[in-house]
Amino acid sequence: MADSAQVPTLVYLVTGGCGFLGEHIVRMLLEREPRLRELRVFDLHLSSWLEELKAGPVQVTAIQGDVTQAHEVAAAMSGSHVVIHTAGLVDVFGKASPKTIHKVNVQGTKNVIDACVQTGTQYLVYTSSMEVVGPNIKGHPFYRGNEDTPYEAVHSHPYPCSKALAEQLVLEANGRKVNGGLPLVTCALRPTGIYGEGHQVMRDFYYQGLRFGGRLFRAVPASVEHGRVYVGNVAWMHILVARELEQRAALMGGQVYFCYDKSPYKSYEDFNMEFLSPCGLRLIGAHPLLPYWLLVLLATLNALLQWLLRPLVLYTPLLNPYTLAMANTTFTVSTNKAQRHFGYKPLFSWEESRTRTIQWVQAMEGSAW
Ligand SMILES: NC(=O)C1=CN([C@@H]2O[C@H](COP(=O)(O)OP(=O)(O)OC[C@H]3O[C@@H](n4cnc5c(N)ncnc54)[C@H](O)[C@@H]3O)[C@@H](O)[C@H]2O)C=CC1
Ligand SMILES: CC(C)[C@@H](O)CC[C@@H](C)[C@H]1CC[C@H]2[C@@H]3[C@H](O)CC4=CC(=O)CC[C@]4(C)[C@H]3CC[C@]12C
């Protein structure tokens, strides 16, 4: 990309731009990328809030499309300088079939790579996931690990399998010649559990608590730490990578970076209470109220119910064998690779991230369920 100071010349494409993370990336690009001439927002489901963004100086082009359709991706990609690929099926609750998860997350990513090669788009930033690493099916903890920490990444669930395959495709594509003869420069970012305004799982916890009279019941020991990262800082890291990939292609090309900030290490449930307690909910129990074997039985019954009810209704509770295993396995990262490679520092402090998330939950109070 021409280092044209602050002259708006660049065209960015964001796939999944109407999603939880995608919306934050789209809005932050418009606020913080002065070189942006056009922002293309590609999504299967376009959101109404896009219309309000069209009033600004940057051309915002909403494109309804499907990443599993190569021709739609190529058409959206044509003429863009950078693609930030966040579109995906984020499903560990059994909402989509394994085949569909693979088709969207793996084939969709292949279509994005092929479109870069076909149209000459030179820079690809992929939203991968901590799940590419773990927790693995053996329940091995990953304690304050980094991008170089040895860990047996063994997956059986369709979602982590798809993210690992897609990330591999992206990293292997680094250096491929795109139309015009220049090399494709790729990079993969691995967020840990993202939280913040618009997080559907947090919304589900909140409404579950309301249904139980303001109470949530502990299922995970407080000692099990899960790394979390604020959505605004994840968005900021994507924007920084997209900006620095050209100048630092030799260093950053083909690399993976965990997304991190100063959010505290806590159990998944205790961390959620940082935002739900100020909104009137209580987490009952200093320890899990039920023995682990009983939780496993309940999770298994939920999975059986989901299977039995599937012809009639989609039953997708928070508790299933995979989510229980995930929540009960420590996974935290401690790294500064992003800072060393491209000067990343969190844009939002923990206090700001917490306040913004609490305000979002509070705004849900009284809103339609
Ligand atoms: N939510 C989290 O805690 C984490 C998410 N990630 C990754 O971040 C990315 C974004 O995740 P979220 O924003 O949480 O999910 P989301 O479900 O809110 O957003 C995904 C977006 O992709 C779109 N999409 C789905 N299938 C599509 C298709 N076939 N064609 C075009 N668009 C399609 C959806 O309509 C949605 O707008 C995903 O790749 C996910 O794997 C990584 C780590 C943690
Ligand atoms: C019901 C209880 C056992 C409760 O504690 C279950 C929590 C469970 C829903 C979450 C625990 C860990 C979460 C996952 C983790 O943050 C890593 C993820 C990375 C992604 O790329 C997508 C989301 C997720 C799989 C995330 C999903 C929700 C949990 C399983």
Automatic annotation (TrEMBL):
Alphabetically ordered keywords of this record: Endoplasmic reticulum, Lipid metabolism, Membrane, NAD, Oxidoreductase, Steroidogenesis, Transmembrane, Transmembrane helix
Transmembrane segments: 290-309
Main location: endoplasmic reticulum
Domain 3-beta hydroxysteroid dehydrogenase/isomerase: 13-283
Reaction(s) this enzyme catalyzes, per UniProt: (25R)-cholest-5-en-3beta,7alpha,26-triol + NAD(+) = (25R)-7alpha,26-dihydroxycholest-4-en-3-one + NADH + H(+); (24S)-7alpha-dihydroxycholesterol + NAD(+) = (24S)-7alpha,24-dihydroxycholest-4-en-3-one + NADH + H(+); 7alpha,25-dihydroxycholesterol + NAD(+) = 7alpha,25-dihydroxy-4-cholesten-3-one + NADH + H(+); 7alpha-hydroxycholesterol + NAD(+) = 7alpha-hydroxycholest-4-en-3-one + NADH + H(+)
Entry superkingdom: Eukaryota
Pfam families: 3Beta_HSD
Gene Ontology MF terms in the entry: cholest-5-ene-3-beta,7-alpha-diol 3-beta-dehydrogenase activity
Pathway assigned in UniProt: Lipid metabolism; steroid biosynthesis; Steroid biosynthesis
UniProt entry tagged with the keyword Lipid metabolism: yes
InterPro entries linked: 3Beta_OHSteriod_DH/Estase, NAD(P)-bd_dom_sf, NAD(P)_dehydrat-like
GO cellular component: endoplasmic reticulum membrane; lipid droplet
Gene3D superfamilies reported in the protein's UniProt record: NAD(P)-binding Rossmann-like Domain
Keyword hit for NAD: yes
Bilayer topology annotation: Multi-pass membrane protein
EC number: 1.1.1.181
Compartment(s): Endoplasmic reticulum membrane
GO process terms (BP): B cell chemotaxis; steroid biosynthetic process
Protein task: The 3-beta-HSD enzymatic system plays a crucial role in the biosynthesis of all classes of hormonal steroids. HSD VII is active against four 7-alpha-hydroxylated sterols. Does not metabolize several different C(19/21) steroids as substrates. Involved in bile acid synthesis. Plays a key role in cell positioning and movement in lymphoid tissues by mediating degradation of 7-alpha,25-dihydroxycholesterol (7-alpha,25-OHC): 7-alpha,25-OHC acts as a ligand for the G protein-coupled receptor GPR183/EBI2, a chemotactic receptor for a number of lymphoid cells.
Family: Belongs to the 3-beta-HSD family.
Name of the protein described by the UniProt record: 3 beta-hydroxysteroid dehydrogenase type 7
